[in-house]
Design brief:
There is one protein chain. It is flat and about 85 Å long. The protein is mainly α. The chain is built from 13 helices and 2 strands. It has a two-stranded antiparallel ribbon with strand order 1-2.
């Protein structure tokens, strides 16, 4: 194929199109994964679930390549059907999927460890999402180091919490994970409350930090270069805060102040 005096022989090779199709399919899934891991108010347990599901999807893709069904690799299927006389060699594609799986396992090894003796955070996520579904007697303490070092105390308090009908009803009502743990009394269940607070405070993504730099660049532009550090700090906090002020109440308070001083 020629275009403006240039010749691209690979465009006439079916194998080049098959490789491109496979690459396109994989990149699309990776883009979806990347987008899913962004956003505000996402807990580490939510992000871990997305990673775990993607790891399982890679196993499914490998099986799909073995059977040459291409049910999940739409672009590869379309191109392979365009070249019915070409045998699709899927072994190298399976090696690529295997390499990708190994890299993801390496990056997220502390979420769900595949090595014996290395602490995994996955049981802690089950505890965070629903402490009433944890079988302490059979499975032991779901929380490990460094979240807690006193697992015995956590087990005892967790068993007490699981018998709290008020908290159990609150969880069944469908409140968010954060709202549920806000309502767990710290004086009654100190160990479990502290473990939940530590898990909730884990930064699972750099999205908020990246948003900060974008907002900072927008606020302190060349047209507002004379902003003081104090005002800049206040504007950034306002932009990043999820707090919604009650303007009606503020207006009423302002009117009341005017009448008081008039």
């Amino acid at each position: 194929m020629e275009e403006k005096g240039k010749y691209f022989p690979e465009l006439n090779e079916p194998q080049w199109w098959l490789d491109l199709a496979f690459f396109t399919d994989v990149v699309q899934y990776l883009l979806t994964l990347n987008k899913s891991l962004q956003g505000k108010e996402t807990l580490i347990s939510d992000l871990a679930q997305i990673v775990f599901s993607f790891q399982n999807k890679l196993k499914l893709f490998t099986k799909d390549l073995q059977t040459k069904t291409f049910a999940y690799l739409k672009c590869l299927k379309k191109i392979s059907e365009s070249f019915p006389n070409i045998l699709v060699e899927t072994e190298k594609y399976m090696n690529k999927i295997s390499g990708l799986a190994e890299e993801i396992n390496r990056r997220f090894y502390d979420l769900r460890s595949l090595n014996t003796g290395v602490s995994s955070l996955k049981p802690s996520f089950s505890f965070l999402e629903n402490p009433f579904a944890v079988d302490v007697v059979s499975d032991g303490c779901p929380i490990s180091s460094p979240i807690t070092k006193d697992t015995a105390a956590v087990e005892l308090v967790l068993l007490e919490l699981q018998e709290d009908e008020g908290l159990k009803g609150l969880k069944l009502s469908g409140v968010s994970t954060i709202e549920f743990w806000k309502n767990v009394p710290e004086e009654k269940y100190p160990q479990t409350k502290m473990c939940a607070m530590k898990l909730i405070s884990i930064f699972g993504t750099t999205y908020v930090c990246e948003s900060l730099y974008s907002i900072l660049k927008f606020i302190k532009s060349k047209y507002r270069s004379e902003l003081t550090d104090e005002h800049l700090s206040e504007l950034v906090r306002t932009a990043l805060s999820n707090y919604q002020p009650d303007f009606t109440k503020l207006t009423e308070k302002n009117e009341h102040s005017k009448k008081h001083f008039s």
